[in-house]
Amino acid sequence: MKSFTVRIATWQEDSHELRAIRETVFILEQHVPIELEWDGLDVDCLHVLAASSAGESIGTARLLPDGHIGRMAVLKEWRGRGVGSALLQLLLAETRKCQVRQAVLNAQTSAAGFYAKFGFQTVGEEFMDAGIPHVKMVLPLQEN
Known about the structure:
By secondary structure, the chain is α+β, with helices and mostly antiparallel strands. The chain has one domain (4-140): Gcn5-related N-acetyltransferase (GNAT) (Aminopeptidase), CATH 3.40.630.30. Helices cover 30% and strands 36% of the residues. The protein has helices at residues 11-29, 34-37, 83-97, 112-116, and strands spanning 4-9, 46-52, 57-63, 68-74, 102-108, 121-129, 132-140. Strands 1-2-3-4-5-7-6 form a seven-stranded mixed sheet, sandwiched between helices. A hairpin with a 2-residue loop joins strand 6 and strand 7. The N and C termini lie far apart (39 Å). The relative contact order is 0.16.
């Protein structure tokens, strides 16, 4: 039984919770520079938010208007419990509604296997972003 829920969120209404999760995971845990994390794009994105059954915000991710998925973050104590999968499934459902041909994301290399389980394929070479190795991954959504 799931002990969490996921829902669509907005930056305007949920920024406090979204920021708290990303600050914990990216800035404090992974040492991403604060100026790289806050890129000014959040207001134009669709966000998803996971919350525990107790109401604690535990995970988030965002979708840019062009089909780029990013800023997937789950608090450490909730990893491996299906939160990331639930967030990604909701984002992919929303991405399909946008009529884009493919979902695109830059995965931390250590997480590439997670995204591959959803059908994402690596394209190109590994690259560094915020001092962390990444790979670009794509998932076709529509036929030509």
